[in-house]
Structures are given as structure tokens and as C-alpha cells.
Amino acid sequence: MNNGLDAPYPTLTRLTQLSFRLSRAIMCLAVLPAIACLAASVAMAQGPAPVTNLQSADHPWDGGDNADLTWEVSADDATLVESYFIYKAMMQKGPIPADLLTESERKYALVDVVPAGTTEYTVGSVPGSGYVRLKDLSDEQRALFDPNDLPDKPHKKITVELGYLFKIVAVGSDGSQSVETITAAPYSPTRQWFDAKRMYLLIITIIFGGSVVFFIQHARAGKDLKIRKIGGLAAVDEAVGRATEMGRSCMFIPGILDMNDIQTIAGMTVLSRVAKTAAEYDAKVEVPTCRSLVMTSARETVQAAYLSAGRPDAYNADFIYYVTDEQFGYVAYLQGNMVREKPAACFYMGAFYAESLILAETGNSIGAIQIAGTAMPAQLPFFVAACDYTLIGEEFFAASAYLSGEPEQLGSLKGQDVGKIIVGIGIIVGVTIATLAAWFVDTGFLTTWSEYIKGVILT
Amino acid sequence: MTTTTKSDAQQARVILATDCGSTTTKAILIQLTDEGYRQTHRGEAPTTVEEPFADVTMGVVNAVVEVGELAGRKFIDDSGKIIQPATETEGCDVYISTSSAGGGLQMMVAGVVAEMTAASAKRAALGAGAIVMDVIASNDKRKPHEQIQRIRELRPDMMLVSGGTDGGDAKHVVSIAELIAPAKPQPRFGSGYTLPIIYAGNKDAAPRMNKIFEQGFELLIVDNLRPVLERENLGPARDAIHDLFLEHVMAHAPGYDKLMGWTDAPIMPTPGAVGNILQTIAESQNINAVGVDIGGATTDVFSVFDKTFNRTVSANLGMSYSISNVCAEATMPNILRWVHFDMDERELRNRVKNKMIRPTTIPQSLEALVFEQAVAREALRLAYIQHKEFATTLKGVQQQRSVGDTFSQETGGQTIVDNMKLNLLVASGGVLSHAPSMNQTALLLIDAFQPEGFTTLAKDSIFMMPHLGVLAQVHPKAAMEVFERDCLIYLGTCVAPKGSGKPGKPCFDYTIKGSTLNESGQIAFGEIKLLPLAEGETASVTVEPGRTFDCGNGPGKRVEKTVKGGTVGLVLDGRGRPLELPESREACKPLISKWVEAMKLYPGMG
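Above: the input entities. Below: the C-alpha cells describing the complete assembly.
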């Protein structure tokens, strides 16, 4: 089909031919500068001169996952270069099967962009070693390793050495890029014994550990270590005394979790004291538990307490018994028992959940002196409101040192207090610096410390 | 004992009162004058309860005769009895007496838990004027054979057994009774005396008590002194102690049966009578009061705070027989800190031993006086500490909390003694009453008791409080009038903010407005100032304490009060509370010298 557009020139009139030639000439005039520009841009696309002498080295005092890069800047650094693009690529090193590295790991990945004039950079996240599991290796791959290095079980790990190549590209302000400069050989960072970034942790540890040792020695030397009076623990004698005078029992509830919970263990310490006091006063202590293992531990604890009070004959294992693992079945039993037997003193020492208020309110209604101790923040308000005394979190865990009065435990408690003071001061200083740094953006000192806190301490 | 009803006693114009002490029997005469009831005359004579006289009434008669001679009245008839009722020239309308002769009333108490029913039993016994020899409790950490041994060793005049709430424990209290019965405690007055036992415990155990104490004991069952743990009911036990004291103890003391026939009100143990008058005063004036009686062997402290009466006897704190113990307990450096000049410690120790073996000697030199007063400060301080530890809220009581109490969960058994609430501090006992200068008595009290805020200081002029304690039972109006006018010598008022500061920095500003004293100024921390305010005068004092000092309205809050004057005056004490002295002797001496000078303690002495 001929629609006229495909028609040869001879079919046009002379005038038309003339005008067509004129327009072609004009087009030629317009294209020439464009071609010139294109030629120029091609010349610029060759980009600035590359960096030279690119070296990778181990970053000192780290965990073996950083590498220090150094280079000499591009010859065009002062003129054309706007920034340097730093890339890394993982390479196998040693007997690691090549196909264990993924394609993306083998490809160069952009690490960071640094401004012109920079001559060094520390690349992070480049661990010098990794691992593969034996089960993930094919027979051919296993053959690459020394048989002595292979573990005996398939799920065990084989440590493999990793290497990295780094490259830097100088980039001009117009986007032109230099030729890549690549490190000569794969480099593996090595791990040092001490990570200097964590120096602050070393200092804190020394102060913390030193203060614990100091206070232990202080206590052993017979010096008085003042510990704030904990009302709940001081009131144990009072509660057991009330039970004795009223001719009723003491009920000790060790929470609803098992012995693997630290709160249950702390509760056993208090139980020991309660049982010893009860033995001295000749009062009855009843310990219903909702875990069989807790029952066993409680029996051991109470028996030892009666023995230390010089009244092993008064110990009766039947008062320490298992009820049920079911949370509300256990609570229902306790509630019924409390209403029927009306114990004069109730102790709630351990981990509690929804049952806390049910128990404490029932105990309150029967007129018992109630002492609670838990580290469950949500339950503390209920215990505080409904019980006579409440050991709050740390107080509960400090009970052991408080009750025993042993120099080692008291010193340790005091040392921990020093640690808490340091942490408290650190939080206040950190928050203050971060806040001020946000207000006074240009202040170098504040910004540096703010970055240190965010980048080092909080990571 | 003659029976005088209160209505008869109200008509009394002449009242005679005696106090039979271990060594001296004191008699006072109270007469109705135009100014109301006044103590007009006094006399004393040696007590005659021991051999060779062995009749307490002989000493009473001698003391009364002395009073009669001074008053120009005849009190004793030809048969040796007190003449009653009074006429224009002879006799008295009311005769009353107290007694602490022969060591007073000595008791043992027992309870189930030492800090609960046993403590209540001790309070009941002490409040009744007894000396508590020991406290037996289930938890006193003694084995049963040790408890039995102790019961056998002591020779109490009577025992008070308590334990268990009503409907509560019976097992333990019965166990204690079963220890006492076979132990067969030997009474002081010999084998013919049946040991009285008061049972004030769980009422359910009473039948078993009857059975246990069936033979060899005189059992008296009264209401439980802790019917519930939340409440103490000491009245019935105290009344029973008084009754048994008369019926059994006094009846066996030489001559007391006769003396009981003369008196118009039951003879009371002397400390019980002192407590009685202090309670009466505190109740009638709605104040908190502390009284102290420092003797040679013991120091009694009485207190009434918020209408709760407490008494303690510090058995080993005294100024003669117990002076060595005071030195041992307080330690010599603590005593010497109150002395403002150099003293040879060796000489001091000799002085202490001499005082022990010659208890009636009195200081002959300024050094001896200053040292004795230093010992007295420490004895009083220690006795007051013991009192604070004993005068507490009840233990074993259920607490009611709110979430606001999260960080302030106070336990039971907190002391009720609060120096900021203290209104009146009364001193008696030789070292306080017979100090050469009233200023010395005032500073002794201030240093030892460390009153806070505004506190009136007074001393019992002639140890009249026991007489008035008994009189208050039959004639409260007369007792009150004599107490106010003749018994108490007001020393003045101490104004002392609580808190601490730096020496020389401002402690409080004051403005005083009175008829004779109008002054304002500032007291620096560590300074004490004495201003004259005569007895009978009052002044309005406004104090504006520094922000770390509290004078009763909270730290830094202004306080305005009307204060009483006295023989000493108004003491503005800026030394802070608690009062802390430098540890170094060299630093302490000039400070004490400054205070001695400011208080004009020893003017012209030495």
C-alpha cells in the first residue's frame, strides 16, 4: 500500500524538493552542536582519576568484623571529585565451597559514600569467619575440607574463613565515575581479645566488681553495712507472733510458677525465715503449692529451718502439699481454705498473676496480717493496697542478704547498689546530652557524645 | 484502812500524806487556805521497816510529828494513832500514803509472745508501780529448764500471767503455767506467804489455770489484757496488782497492816502514784508529759503521749549504786564530752568507785559536781532511749494501706514518744532536784532529753508527786491545785528547732513580746541563749526557723506560741536536734564552755 509517505522523491514537485532540502540543511545545522555536545560528554564520562594505593588492614581492638581501608585520593580530588563510593564483596577463602556464597554476597555492594578528601574508612560487618553445618554440604564439598576438621555430627558447625575485596570509585559532581580501584587480595579481619569500643563496659565492670569486693571485705572486717529497714521482712516476726497469740496458722503461698522462676526461688528464702520463726514460736505453717517441684523444695526448706531452730520434731511434711497446676483451681482452693481456717498471717512470695488481688482481698477480709513479695509490676499495686506489707521487686530479691546478714551477701548487695547508681547517673547524663544535642545541633562536643551514646553504648 | 468516800474527802480542809521510802519516810501537810489547797509543811524521818524496829508506822509517826510541830498541830493521839477528823488545832481529815519500802513491789510477768502479750503484761506491771524482775515468754529463746531455773531463782512478790487473745491460743499459755506451777517460785516474804498469781490471758484457758494453780498459789483471774491484738486492756490487771499489793505484799511487810488501817485510800506503790498524777495532769490539761525520777540505783521514766501512759524502770542506771554501770554503758568518753575542762581520767574512776561505796556523799568541789552532772546526763539519756524503745504502738496489729503507702510501710511497734509533741518535762531525783542552781537542772534536762519545739521545764520541788498521785484518787481538785502551785517549780521554757546546719549559720529568728521581756534577734546554729522570764510570767514567742529546721509546723514554717516563765527563764536552743557534739575532746571543750557560760551554769563557783 502506498500512502504517500513511502513515495520516492521524484514524485514531489520541484518547490517541494527545494523546501525539503532546505529543511534538511537546517536540521544538519541543529544536529551539529548536539553532536559536539555529545562528543564532549563522552570525553567527560571517562570521569575523574581513580584513587590509588587502596589498602585494607585489620581494625585494631575489635571483635574481628571491621576492616580499615586507606587510599590516596584521586588526582582530581580537588576539582572534579565530589565523593568516593566504597564497595565490598565477599570472597571465599580457604576450603570454603564457592557455591556456598550467594550471588548477592559475591557481588560488590555499596557500603558507604564519603566526601572528597577522605583517605580512610572503617568498613563494618565484615566478619573474618563464618560457619556452615555439615549436613548442608554435599559429598564433593565435604571433600574440600580436611577430614580431621569435619565434626562427627551433621548438625554441627564448621568454621570457615571469609575474605573481602573492597573497591572505591571516585564520583564527580556531574555523576561521572572514575575507574574502579580494587584491593589486591581478599582480606580477612581478625578478632582481638578486647574490643576498645566497649572500654566503658570494662570501666563499669571494674568499678562494679571492685565495689562488690570492697564491700565484702568491709563487711568481713566487721564494719557495719547499713541496709535500709525493709518493713515486710521486719514484720515476719510480728505476723507469726500474731498467729501464735491467736492460735491460728500461717499460710505461705509461693506463687504459681515453678522452681525455674527466680521469684519462686526468692520466695523460698523468705519461707525459710518464716518457718524458722514459726518453729521458735511453735506456730503452724501451711504451704499449699501449685507445682510439685515447689512442694518438694518447700519441704526441704521448712525442714532445714526447723532443724536450725532446734525443733526438728515439730516439722510436719503434711502441712506442705500440692494442690493443682491449674491457676484458678489453685486459687479457688486457697480462697476456700482461707475462709474456713482463717489463718492469722498470709505470705504471698513469688510470681503472681490475676490471682493476686483475689488472694489479698480474701486475706484482708479474714483479718490476717498479709505480707507479699513479687517482681510482677502489674500485680504490685494490688498487693500494696490489700496487704499490710509488700516487698517490691528488688526488695524481694534482696531478702536473702537482708535476712542472712552474711558479709558476702551484704557486700554483694551494696556493690550492686553502686552499679545501680552508676547506671542511674549514666541514664541521666545520656538523656541530658541527647536532649541538648538535639537543641544545639552545631555543638561538636554534644553531637560527638550523642553519636557515641547512640552508636556505641546503645548498640 | 478507813473508808473515806470521795464526797467526804471533798470537804477535807487538812490532808496529811506520807511516802515510805526505803530509807526516808516523808510527810507533807496540805491545807485549805484562802488561795485554795496549798502544801504548807513537810517533815521526814528514817524509815523503820527493817530490824530492829520492824514497824513502818514508827517512821510514819516520827515524820508526822515533825510536820505537826512545824504546823503547830497535833496529829498523833496518845495511843500513837493519827487523829481524824481535823479540828481547829489537831488532826487531819484525810490521811493517805504510798510505799516503796523494802524494794517496792517486785513482780515476774509471763506471756506467749515476748513482743505482744508479754510486753503488755510488762506494761501493766510497770504502770502499777512494780519492778519487773523478768519476763517469761514462749519465744524468749530459753529452754524450759532454763525458764524453770530462772523462776526458782527469783523471789517475786507476785506474778502476772497473760497470753493468747480471747478465743485464741490456749496451748502456749497453759504450757507457761505448767512451767510456773512445778517451779514453785519462793516468795520474798517466806514460806508462810502464798504467792499471788494474776491471770489476765485467754478467757478460754481460765478453767485450766484454776486447776494448774489450785494448790500453793493465790490465783486471781481478771479480764484478758489483750482480748484482741488490736487493743490493750491493762486496767483490770493493774487494779488486781494494786489489790494484791495491799492484801498480800503490804500485809506481810512489818507494820503495814497497821498503816493500812490508818489510811483513807489504798496504799499505792510510789512509782504507781507518780504515774497516776502525771496521767491526771496530762488528761486535765490535754498535754503530753514526761516525768523522770533519777535515783541512786534506778531511773524511772514516765510518759503520757496522746493519753497513753507508759513507765519504764532502768534498773541499772542510777547515780550511786549504779554509777559504775552508767559509766560502763555510756563509756567514759561520752561522759567526758559534757565536761568543759581537763580532768584526769584516773581520778574520775576513783570518784566513781567512791560514789558506789559511799552512795550518800554529795559533790564537794566544782570538778566533782560537773562530773556528777555529766554522768547524770548520760544516765538520763540512756534511760530515755530505753523508754522510747518500750513505749511503742502495739505489735501484731493488722495495718490498713493504700497505694500511697508503697514506699512508706511502717511496721508496728513504733515508738509513741515524740519530742516535738512534748509539752511538759518534769524532773525529780536528787541530782536534778538538789542541783545548786536551777539553771543546771534545766540544761541537764535539755541535754539528756533533747526536747524539740516548745517545751515547758519543771521540777518536783520536794518529790511530792507520789503523795499527790494517791490524793488524786480521793480529791482530784486538791491534788491539781497543789501540783500546780507547790509541787512543780517551773524552770522555764525551752525553744529548740529540730534539724541540723553549719555552725554559725542562722538557725532561727525570734520575736518575744511580754510584759517584761520584749526582744527579737537571731540564733545561730550551735548557739544557746538564756533570756530572763520570771515565774508566773508569760510571753508570746514567734519563731521563724531556717528552711532545714522545724519548730513544730514543718521545716522553715513560722511558729507562734505563748510560753511560761520560770526560775531559769526562756532558753533559746539553736544547737539542733539530734544534738551532736564533736568527737574530738579538744573541739568539744570550748563548745561546752560556751554553752556553760551562756546558761550561767556555774557562776562564782570553783
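Note for the figure: Residues 290-394+413-598 of chain B form one domain.
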